[in-house]
Write a structure and sequence with these properties.
10% of the residues lie in helices and 57% in strands. It has 273 residues and is mostly beta strands. The N terminus is likely disordered.
Length: 273
């Protein structure tokens, strides 16, 4: 039982760290429902040839200097971690609405679908994947998460050195790991401080980028065969965001049950139609 609990902890924490990272970048809401592929441009628009359609521009509400909200925009990242193997993933804006947009995050064997809201002060990630619910699947994991009490802001419309802001949410859900069901609940808080503009070089190029310090606290409570097991994941990161490009790099350190780890994520390529 102890070995199984440790394995489940590791899998859940990995998923939540993925979500935390992608927040710096709608599930069905039914338990154990598979992730559906994002609708194609043809399916969304009814057009016979999606290549004939111009890119969908952002509405004024979604206009953000550090996150270009354009349908079809993609950002590919690579990461190194002291706790896991190297990894890579791609964020794609798969649809845009007047009051929000959808981002599909694709790893080799994990797909996340995130909903974002555009509000008066900026844009807000409705973590952990959707406006009401999100789904994560791998070859042997299915995680259904429902978020509540989302508040604050992820990217303000304007970011100046010295600005501070926060983003918080609660969540509940279930995780199925090869037939082993685990109840999950908790909350996440992101606290941001803008430092100033720095020159940053990553595989995608060299950028004058806003340096932002982010403190993330993830409180998780897992119920395994009737026993509640709480854990807190803390992470401190320094991230850089380039105007009209988005998130280009982050360096972070985290602590899980007293085990420290470090991680670097860099932008490898991007395409904004």
């Amino acid at each position: 039982m102890k070995h199984k609990s440790v394995k489940l902890f590791g899998l859940l924490i990995a998923v939540l760290v993925i979500m935390a990272c992608s927040a710096l970048g709608g599930g069905s809401g039914e338990e154990n429902a598979p992730v559906e592929e994002p609708a194609s441009s043809e399916e969304r628009s009814g057009a016979s040839d999606p290549t004939d359609e111009p890119p969908v521009a952002v509405s004024s509400l979604c206009d953000n200097e550090y996150y270009p909200v354009v349908n079809g925009a993609t950002w590919s990242y690579s990461g190194t971690s002291s706790a896991t193997e190297d990894f890579a993933y791609t964020n794609t804006i798969s649809s845009v609405r007047d009051d929000g947009f959808t981002v599909t995050v694709e790893f080799d064997d994990v797909t996340l679908v995130q909903e974002w809201a555009c509000i008066a002060d900026g844009i807000l990630a409705l973590d952990t994947g959707g406006s009401a619910a999100g789904t994560v699947t791998t070859s042997d994991i299915n995680l259904e998460m429902e978020t509540q009490n989302v508040s604050g802001i992820t990217y303000p419309n304007e970011i100046l050195p010295g600005n501070t802001w926060a983003h918080t949410l609660d969540y509940t859900g279930k995780m199925d790991v090869a037939g082993e069901f685990v109840d999950v609940s908790g909350d996440t808080t992101y606290s941001y401080t803008a430092i100033g503009i720095e020159n940053v070089t990553v595989p995608a190029g060299t950028f004058d980028a806003m340096k932002i310090e982010v403190i993330t606290t993830i409180n998780i409570n897992m119920t395994i065969q009737g026993s509640e097991v709480p854990v807190t994941v803390t992470s401190t990161s320094t991230s850089w965001f380039a105007e009209d490009v988005g998130w280009v790099k982050s360096d972070s350190t985290s602590d899980v049950l007293g085990a420290p780890s470090s991680e670097t994520i860099e932008l490898v390529s991007y395409s904004i139609p």
